[in-house]
UniProtKB/TrEMBL annotation:
PANTHER family: SULFITE OXIDASE, MITOCHONDRIAL, SULFITE REDUCTASE. Residues 39-218 form the Oxidoreductase molybdopterin-binding domain. This is Oxidoreductase, molybdopterin-binding domain-containing protein. Keywords: Metal-binding, Molybdenum, Oxidoreductase. It comes from the Eukaryota. InterPro entries: Ig_E-set (IPR014756), MoCF_OxRdtse_dimer (IPR005066), Mopterin_OxRdtase_euk (IPR008335), OxRdtase_Mopterin-bd_dom (IPR000572), OxRdtase_Mopterin-bd_sf (IPR036374). GO terms for cellular component: mitochondrion. Residues 245-363 form the Moybdenum cofactor oxidoreductase dimerisation domain. One of its GO terms (molecular function) is sulfite oxidase activity. Pfam families: Mo-co_dimer (PF03404), Oxidored_molyb (PF00174). Its cofactor is Mo-molybdopterin. GO terms for biological process: sulfur compound metabolic process.
Amino acid sequence: MTGTYTEYSVQNPLNREPPVQTLVSSFFTPENISYDRNHGPIPHLAADTHTVQIDGQVPNPLSLSVHQLQTDFPQHEVNCALECAGNRRHTMRTLLKEVEGIDWGDAAVMNCTWKGPRLRDVLHRAGLTQDSCQGLYVAFSCYAVQCQEDDWFGSSVEVERCLDEDMDVILALEMNGSPLTPNHGYPVRVVLPGVAGARWVKWLDRITVQDTESSNFYQRHDYKVLPPEAVDSASAEPFWDRTPAMCDMPINSVVGVPGDGDTVHLSGSGTLEVKGYAVPHGADGPVTRVQVSVDGGQAWMDAEIEGSSVERKWCWVLWRVRVRVERGAGKEVLSRAFDRGGNVQQEHSQWNLRGVGYNGYGRARDLTII
């Protein structure tokens, strides 16, 4: 593993999101408008010398080059959304109460095609079988750069998820038909459909099968929905080890157009076009229905889910609807989503100190309609 150079720093990592209006203009998110979430610098690694170690409780530990990952295993393609656990944190802190963390708006999410070998095939090559893995975890690590709160970055999920073919877990080498870029984990990252982005380790260099969760700070002391009584760092401390790490992302929808504070003109027919995105809960996709309200949630109108020929289980959907709304200031548009698993987006979700997993109604607030 040789890094040619790094961009940004531990003190000033790259964290950004596009305007949500831009984000919802394309079903597949182009790399140049995708969000970036980092806890340290971005390494530029050389694929020809990079290896991924598979070790821990496996009969046959492996060291695989990127070329071997490309050629020794069938390549699998999966269309899925990648969402930051802190997506919509701004809404939680402004509608509920103050939280800790980056002030993400509604656009820390992207929908892409990812390609690479299935992790289950790699684990099988290492001798792991369904019968031998009860109660184990798969830990993913990147030791290429130091992070803000730890010397490395890591995550873990239960091994059953990685061995289940229907979960579509892959070691991605490509995004949207091209090699990964350094920002998105080149030369290899783990893709865990339906799971919080914090678990999708970039610049992956080690996979360890073990009987405990990852010991990394970001698995143990971040990205958890702490109980409401954890109101500051001191009161949160007893809860970190008792609170499960975030895994599945919740059902969600967002109003992308119009945006908060916009002044918009009704059409000649007296209607307003509303557009946005929606994502399912974890593995419960696809999203089956999106509704919009302009009267505070008293009445709801079905939105049209835009057509696409791709498998939508792990994807977001883009939706649109024309609504009749009275002219005036201080108007609000709400959205809510439904998925195949029966999950329904609620008005608010649980407040938590780290502001993660917010999935209250999508909202465009303080609109002026003329």
